[in-house]
From TrEMBL:
The keyword Acyltransferase does not apply. It comes from Brassica napus (Rape). This is (rape) hypothetical protein. One of its GO terms (cellular component) is chloroplast membrane. It is found in: Plastid, Chloroplast membrane. Residues 68-79 have a biased composition (Gly residues). Belongs to the RETICULATA family. The lineage of its organism: Eukaryota, Viridiplantae, Streptophyta, Embryophyta, Tracheophyta. Residues 62-88 are annotated as: Disordered.
């Protein structure tokens, strides 16, 4: 029941929304926002706002499939007066922040500029973008659309990537040593291949289910219905929609299916490479050293790889969706967004526990379907 409730947002009144407001009436026409009534003090308020208020103002419209300027790809609003006002406000806030910072709209990435013009992102996202541009590393990463969408949604995204890959390297290496013992250093090639595949899988497990600020433009009218549907699904089924955007229950379920398909491909491919390299090394060693032949059984490549792909698509997919969209974004971030060190520590603890749980579940699953023997 707790997980199901995360698909919905309880309707709240406009006065209770926690997004930052500028000092003007939201019902004024957009052209009147630039008449000089707004003071610099009102604009500077956004500079002190963290990224969390971007998401706290969302209202999921239940049955509405409209997203990114129209769920049908047509770009029509059809959202009702409330969403129309949100988009007008978003556009005005973003344009004023850009003007105050001396940034030209044409100098921004094309997807970000289009999102600003259509009112799909609030001023807090622009504030976050301008802050990230101050770092040379972040500025370089922001050139890539996938990193741009994730960094604008979560300022700890890179830290979480490092946490997950670091824990993955340590646990995988420890597991390899436990399994090989005295042969560990004699089989470093296999160990290296297995660890690299584990890092790739861990990277994708953080990257794919991470909440995003969607900057993707609507698809063309000629696109198929299935393509349009999955295009408008969120990247995380449980993520909070930003102001001016909403996701239906069906779209959130679609996010689980879409990420599951991607993780199945990642898991199957990584396992194919890892088990193939391991088996090749075992056979080569047996050909050279006849005394070691038969000591270690080869791993069934196809069955193991498909089983691991299914495990990634179901167990890992759901666990990482819940960690990123529920535990971190809906619980830890609202409580600790002003205490980044404590937030990072809690995220590390949660993700380490999730990795440990995943290892236990994989062993049980592998033994259940018979690809690993219980001794």
């Amino acid at each position: 029941m707790a997980m199901t409730s995360c698909f919905f947002t309880v309707p709240i009144s406009e006065s209770n929304l926690t997004r930052p407001h500028l000092a003007f009436s939201p019902r004024l026409p957009s052209s009147s926002y630039f008449t000089g009534v707004i003071s610099a003090k009102a604009i500077s308020f956004h500079r002190r706002v963290t990224i969390s208020p971007v998401f706290s103002a969302s209202i999921d419209n239940g049955g509405s499939d409209n997203n990114n300027g129209g769920g049908d790809g047509g770009g029509g609003s059809g959202d009702g007066d409330g969403d129309g006002e949100d988009r007008d406000r978003n556009r005005s806030e973003a344009m004023m922040l850009l003007a105050e910072s001396g940034t030209e709209l044409e100098s921004l990435p094309k997807d970000l500029a289009a999102a600003i013009e259509s009112g799909r992102i609030p001023g807090s996202v622009i504030t976050r973008f301008l802050e990230l541009q101050r770092s040379a590393v972040m500025r370089w990463l922001m050139q890539f659309a996938g990193f741009r969408e994730r960094l604008l949604a979560d300022d700890l995204f890179l830290a979480k990537l490092a946490m997950e890959c670091g824990v993955g390297v340590f646990t995988k290496t420890a597991a390899e040593y436990e399994r090989r013992r005295e042969n560990f250093f004699n089989e470093l090639e296999v160990v290296f291949a297995d660890v690299v595949m584990a890092i790739i899988a861990d990277f994708m497990l953080v990257y794919l289910p991470a909440p995003t600020v969607s900057l993707r433009p609507p698809l063309a009218l000629t696109a198929g219905g299935i393509s349009k549907f999955f295009h408008n699904c969120p990247d995380n089924a449980f993520q909070i929609a930003i102001s001016g955007t909403s996701y239906s229950l069906l779209q959130r379920l679609g996010a689980i299916a879409r990420n599951g398909a991607k993780l199945f491909a990642v898991g199957t491919t990584s396992s194919l490479v890892g088990t193939a390299v391991t088996n090749a090394f075992i056979k080569a060693k047996g050909a050279v050293d006849k005394t070691s032949e038969g000591e270690v059984e080869t791993v069934p490549i196809v069955s193991t790889s498909v089983a691991y792909g299914v495990y990634m698509a179901v167990s890992a997919n759901l666990r990482y969706q819940v960690v990123a969209g529920v535990i971190e974004q809906r619980f830890l971030e609202p409580m600790l967004h002003q205490h980044k060190l404590a937030l990072s520590a809690m995220c590390f603890a949660v993700r380490t526990g999730n990795t440990f749980l995943g290892s236990l579940l994989w062993v049980d699953y592998a033994r259940l379907i018979g690809i690993q023997k219980s001794h």
